[in-house]
Each structure stands twice: as C-alpha cells, then as structure tokens.
User: Fold this.
Amino acid sequence: MFYRLMKMIVAPLLRIFFRPWIEGAENIPDDGPAIIASNHLSFSDSFFLPALMKRRVTFIAKAEYFNTPGLKGKLTAAFFKGVGQLPVDRSGVRGAGEAAIRSAVAVIERGELFGVYPEGTRSPDGKLYRGKVGGLARVALATGAPVIPVAMIDTEKVQPPGQVVPNFGIRPGIRIGRPLDFSRYQGMENDRFILRSVTDEVMYEIMRLSGQEYVDVYATAAKRQLADDKKRADADRKAEQKAEQKALKAQQEAEKAAAEQAEAEKAAGSSADDDGDDGTDSAKK
Assistant:
C-alpha cells in the first residue's frame, strides 16, 4: 500500500521538479523475475529508480536504515519497510548476509524484480567501484534470473552524499541495459571464481552505460581512505595554524620587548638631559 502511495504522490512530484529521463525501459520485462543491478551515487537513487520503473523493485538496504534511533530513524525505517526493502547487515555477520540472500531468492521465486547495488554502498566521489561478490551473483546463479544492468546518471548532483535538501535545476536520468544471461553458471553459486567473474561482467556493463571512471577497489575501502586523508589534512591544517599562532605570538612578544626597550632608552635619555640641565645651572650660579 505504501509503495502504491509513493508511486501516486512521490513519482509525479519527482517528474515535476526534476524531469528525470529514462533510456532502455523496454529492457525491463513486463512480467517474470529479474535482477536489477545498479550503480549507487546518491540516497535519492532509492526514490528515482522505483519512481521511474513501471514494476515494483525490491532492493536490499543497509540495516542502519531500519534501526537508527530517533524520529528521523523511525521515519526512514517506515519508508524502507513500506516500499518492501530488505535489510542487510554489512558488519560481516555471515548469518545476516545469508538471510538477506534467502529473502532475495524468495523475491525472485515470486516472479518479481529484485534490486541490488553491487558496490555495496554509495560512491564517495562519483566513480564506479569494484562490485562485491555476494548477493548479486549468488542470487543470479541460484535462481537463473537474468541480470539487468542499470546506470543512475547525475543523481549525485541532485543530492550529494551527506546533503539532506536536494539541488533543483538538475535533470537526472536512468539508462537500462540489455539483460545478461548467466544461466550457464546456474548451480555454481559456491564457486568464488565464478561469482567474481559474474560480478565483474555486470560491473563492466554498468560502467559502459554510466560512463563512470572505474576503480578496482571496494567503495568501502575508498571511503576509509578518503576519511583517513581528511583526518591527516585536518591534523596538518591544525598543526599549521598552531605554528602560525606560535610564530605570531613570538613576533608580538618580540615587538613588545622592542617597544619596552625603546621606551626604557627614551626614559633614560630624558633623565640624562634633566641631569645635564641641573649641572649647567649650578655652574652659572
């Protein structure tokens, strides 16, 4: 019900304010199961993609969206639950990941569309990062469902990471590629080399559709590196500011000392002049 309500209210608003475009919509089957594999540039992807799809797409969403405390957390959880998103624990707990995969397989077995962001998280800088071996390939090989690569375009300009209020005047889009058939590998979902091969093939198609620069590292590692670089830059900036303040303080103290010395010399000179005048007067007398 919430999903239909979103399609009725949110989708028209997005079309009015952002005029999003879509290419390759004919590559989404009118019925039957399929896996939607998309790049992930912005939080707004979770709005634009479902809004422009004729069929419902059930995505995996990080567990933090469902258990964040506070009013904002409750509203976010209500939204993701309402649109049928599946929580996945990204902390490395294997049981949680297996549960998410089973849920995804159940979506496919119902003949629906299952969506996944193979990078595992939003791109920190607009580049396309290495796909994680896991949900995408395992669900594809376990079910035989076709994988449809999708490229979100310019959504990071609409809502950059960390920004709550979107930027207007930007027209984002979605480019949908032709379905990829991996049925030749069906039943080999426990072979890590096959999983990597399938994932890399999907990521190549997403790169081709999006035109993004590809970086062969995980986005989570890139985020950590960027965070470390920021910490170092902040530390260097603080050290530089501290050094500048120290130098300024030393300069001020030197100027103060020079001024005090000049004042002392002036006072000494004035005293000497006074003594000389007294001596002259005495001699005259």
